[in-house]
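Quick log. Single chain, no ligands specified.
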Amino acid sequence: MFILNGAVFGIWASRIPAIADKHNLSPTALGLLLLVMALGAVAAFALSGRAADHYGAATVTKYIAILNSVILALIAFAPSIWMLAISMVIFGAITGGMDVAMNAWAAEVERKAQRPLMSSFHAMWSFGAGIGAGSSFLSATYYVNISTQFTSSAIVILIITLFITAIPGRSKQNKTHNNAPIYVLPKSSLLGVAIIAFCASLSEGVIADWSAIFLIAVAHVSDGDAALGYAVFSIAMMAMRLIGGQIVHQFGTTKTARLAALVAMIGSFIALTFTSFSLILVGFGLTGLGLSIIMPLAFSRAANDKNVSQGAAIASVATLGYGGFLLGPPLIGFIADISSIRTSFLILPVLALLIFAFSRFLSGK
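-> predicted structure:
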């Protein structure tokens, strides 16, 4: 499920320049489009968290995954900017709802295994995103249009999704919180976790949605080469997440988060300082290494909060976290419009510094 969700997002994110060209979108217009996508996701977070508590995270994940597999076709055939905006609202709601449900399911598996596994699950998301970005690179290189690529990808992903949802498996239901508010504001240490998630996800969103445009503007590369920016970022995240559990076990949660924040800061400075295509890719790769471990730590900490139910806690962190993932890119568009895309990327080292400052809240103590 993590791989499939990542693949859908990777395909979309890597073809953003082509979609912007197809609909003749300015940076501000693209930013507004990403904003309505964000609104759809934020609206779905709390509802998905409540549904995961009530019906079981595994069940909710499987149902949303089917919708997730076909959403690309809806985007591909949007005939106008208004239909594209509606498609993006739906896209945001589906991907956001699936994020909450599948992370709740993963947290249950992690608790049952009694060892850190969340990082490995997120590695699979990055693996899927890398596959999606790679397919976009090939499609752009060989001049495959968006409609053909998105439709064929949707068919393949739907077939795999239907196969996986047929595998038996259920998770526990928790109906004791049915009378609680649908959205629970994060408080105390959980608020600190949510701020960390916001910073990490905003950074991921910036690179996911704007790395291709950044490379075209700064390094003057083709659309095909520009798609490699997010591919390198995703592969670096996947590689680090595969060993993330061992690193956390070795160094502890807080120290791991601080080291990761420093690596992300160094990577973002490299990407901002140089105009060489290869050096910018190195910067994106280091940024991916640094950010990779942060969201898994945040979700694992939220799922084990002692005061809030699993679904509600993950939803509250996700609202700020993945809200940053989706709300940040529109901000980049606005800044790029009044200055430059390179100036807008200065937000990345600032966010890494904030992650370093708040990292102590991830320990749960």
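The chain has a mean pLDDT of 84.
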